[in-house]
Amino acid sequence: MALKDDLTDAVDGILGTAFEEREGKKIPTSDDIALSNGAVKLDAAFLYADLAGSGVIAKVCPWDTTAKIIRAYLDCSVRIIRAQGGEIRSFDGDRVMGVFIGDRKRTDAVKAALKIQWATENLIQKKATARFNSVKNNDVKIRQACGIDVGISRAVRAGIRNNNDLIWIGRPPSFAAKLSDNREYPYCTFISAAVYDAMLDEAKLSKGVNMWEKRSMKFAGVDEDVYRSNYEWTP
Known about the structure:
- The chain is of the alpha+beta class and 235 residues long.
């Protein structure tokens, strides 16, 4: 069969799919969902942690230094997300997505984000500056941002047999990714109003002081209330 015919049949089959949706009791993996027509509905908080300016780092640092910085950032992010009760479900270059469920999902995701900021500022930046002349001599600033939203999403599988992965459909993962694109240092953690309004005070207040500042940004053509923080949390 010619590739054109193969592609035509694939598109017709995908667009004609009737999904079999089920309620998710846990964060699914690819093996939990049928490739042909499976879908899992999940109420979850999504955290995107995104290293900022990796292109600039790559421009002034040797490739192996750049690789070590990115690896250190992703390693710390993954360890913190998992320690805080989340699960990793996606890597995209220098960005990672964590998923949290349960009654504390908002609070746990926010605390993870604040700990990622601490690790970036107090471990990765300081140690990379001390170890690598290309970082020190070029005054490289290792920055990052985390974005968090919460709500109902669906997980489905996309791709072909032996070459597929989960994709997440819905506002929360998309909005969390958009929030992580913000570059407003020293404000490095950005959350939606849906996260802020229902998270516990332990993630909202520091010694009685609100750690969050209300802002507005556009998403999907609509003005959204969001909150940003310049605080960090020592793991």
